[in-house]
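Quick start: read one record
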Amino acid sequence: MKIPEIIKYIKDLRFYILLSSLIFLSAILSGYIFAQNFPKETQEIIKELEEFFSVSEKMTSLEMFLFILENNVIKLFTVVLLGIFAGLVPLLSVWANGMILGVFAQIVSQELSWSFLIVGILPHGIIEIPVLILSVAIGIKMGKIAIWRIFGGEKNFRKEWTKAIKFYILVLVPLLFVAALIETFITPVFLGML
């Protein structure tokens, strides 16, 4: 995929990117409000997240990098693939990620500080969040195309599917690689300075 093709593909996704972004921002706000109003339930969510990430405590930096990369690549590829089911999985995924981020933001900002939250998320999040939004946008678009195909209105399903997979592999996976590097090797350095 050449740069002009990439730019055109992103332009073609603009409606879906806007929709994904609005859902994500709404979910962050909902998660933040939920954490403020339901502290008991929030603590249960945090416990589950801690159990999931407790595995990473015994990992070397390289193992942690590979764990983050593999987790993100597989999850977001699943979001793209399962978009064909009317776009429901991507919509649920972006909502769930936003809710978790909102809950996390509320707890960290209260228990630690806003600066800790920003430094802990921004370095890799500046790449990872747009990749999430783009993956969800692709999944939603593929869902719409799949529905149109059922009703005989979409003739280029295979072509669109090929473009989506190429874009994911050639553009989004390298960005996830960079985000995982930053999260593993740079974010902890910044957090150590606080």
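DSSP finds seven helices and no strands in the chain.
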